[in-house]
Amino acid sequence: MASVSWNFDKNAINKAAREAVKEHVKKNLQPALDRVFQRCAGQPVEEVKKQLAAEWKRATGENLDKRKLDTWAEAIAGNTRVRLEAK
Questions:
Q1: Interatomic CA distance for residues 84 and 71, integer angstroms
Q2: What's the structural domain count of the chain?
């Protein structure tokens, strides 16, 4: 039986993963948050939560966890733009 050996460059894999996350944030997640901010800044927190939850689900296919939903909705309701940064 032949064996196959494969060496991984962990640093290259980690760098590629970081770049992919940054690109996803830039193209999908930040625009979703910005759309909610443009539509809902200054509105009641509960209305922002509804819009934010729906927009996040549309952008990711997943529900936004409650802690982030509450925190981000409060910020947007207070006219503060939420900015994501991938490190």
A1: 13
A2: 1
DSSP class per residue in the chain: ---------HHHHHHHHHHHHHHHIIIIIHHHHHHHHHHHTTS-HHHHHHHHHHHHHHHHSSPPPHHHHHHHHHHHHTT--------
Return d(Cα 50, Cα 40) in angstroms, integer. 10
Please determine, for residue 52, whether its predicted confidence score (pLDDT) is greater than 90. yes
Question: Quick one: pLDDT band at residue 1, thresholds 50, 70, 90?
Answer: low
Q: Which domain holds residue 47?
A: 25-77
